[in-house]
Amino acid sequence: TPRLGQKLMGNRNKELKSKRRKALMGGGKARVAAQHEKNKLTARERLALLLDENSFEEWDIFVEHRSDSFGLDKQKFFGDGVVTGYGKINGRLVFVYSQDFTVLGGSLSEANAKKICKIMDQAMKVGAPIIGLNDSGGARIQEGVASLGGYADIFQRNVMASGVVPQLSLIMGPCAGGAVYSPAITDFIGMVKSTSNMFVTGPNVVKTVTHESVTAEELGGSHTHTSKSGVADFECENDLELIELIKKLFSYLPSNNKEKAPITPTKDKLNRKVLALDSVIPENPSIPYDMREILINILDDKNFFEVQEKYAKNIIIGFGRICGESIGIVANQPKFLAGCLDIDASKKAARFIRFCDAFNIPIITFVDVPGFMPGLRQELGGIIKNGAKLLYACAESTVPKITIITRKAYGGAYDVMSSKHLRGDVNLAWPTAEIAVMGAKGAVEVIFKSEVAEDGSKTEQLVKSYEEKFLNPFEAAKLGFLDDIIKPSETRGRIAKSLEMLKNKDLKNPWRKHGNIPL
Fold first, then answer.
1. Which DSSP helix (H) or strand (E) runs through 386?
2. 24-33, 223-232, 430-439 — most confident range
3. Nearest to residue 465, comparing CAs of 493, 489, 490, 444?
4. Bridge partners of 85?
């Protein structure tokens, strides 16, 4: 009867309210307090900061694990250690999962993994980015291989989503063992100082196996991974700062590989001239300068979002905008190692280029490179194959590519920095550009070896002659390898016009299952 139905509904509503309240408490007040004492937010607090107000739709809030081994039957919590669902960031749809360290240390169980896989599958169906907030003790050991299988299920989806929807990882606590490989496959990783770490094996195992004494921070802290290993892209002071940074990064990205990044309105003029750039290059070619000064002056509202700022400082990568359009920046940095390309710089730039190409983001390359880094350490470390990664990425990319040579472009490094020969669409140079096989002195010592050996006084004259012929942009322009030589102050306007011209670019690579990049 209607009255009985109302009574039943009332009882069920009370039960629902009670269960939901319990689920929202995570591991309980004591564990939440312990999380806060570590200067860490809870899983739900993080999502509240990440997503637009009232936009979060949670899935699987009542899921529990099904294991009864080792006393797990007495440790059941709604949600089973991860909060999953979807919401919006500045009105744009995203799918999220946030590991809850207050519930069994955020450890990954079979049920926990299925929750994550469900939202990843849905994100692929609707073409929306996936953001993972990691804070977990790793695999739930009590579940054995079922937990390991859960990790593999997530890895498979990470690989399938790669290049289809952006994947962002926030490391906001421990991330160890198999757990590290999911973030490693994603596009960008951010870490928090002091409270987050990533390593395959922890300090205790390292000491047992290799007899090395090392702290968790030294082994896998944010400083280690953002400045030494290159595993992570960003380092922030706390959870809030990392969440705000990821939201800013998200604003430069499209939702999937079939769309373009959103246009951000600007009052910055298309043809704004930057007179300061006409004098930014030192007269002495051996004196360094800061490439960031050029980038900041050219981009909309002088905003540059740098990626991997502390790693491989001899090359700069990041996002900016020209006339509101999101662009990827790759630039040699003469301030460090004279802007040489070494192993780390090549890998850093190659991966970024491939990301931009996958997600329809035009690439602007600024060149001031004296060559690849020489030395035994580089050769033994595989500079040949690692340098070829950058070459491969540039050659393979089909998005609009605009290149500006500001000063040196020597040797094979000239080729790989998005030259006309690697399908650069618009290749420009400043009057200060020097395009040659090598520097003048080295070239003279090879070309005029016998003359210099007989009479060393001729060296200076021969160097000057070589400089007049090759250390300028006119020889390359004569051969059509440059489209134009421009005043530095006009660079912003020329890039803007080139992007407008290239907006309908249609270039496809030959059909293949996939290429074989030199890994």
1. helix 383-396
2. 223-232
3. 444
4. 58, 96
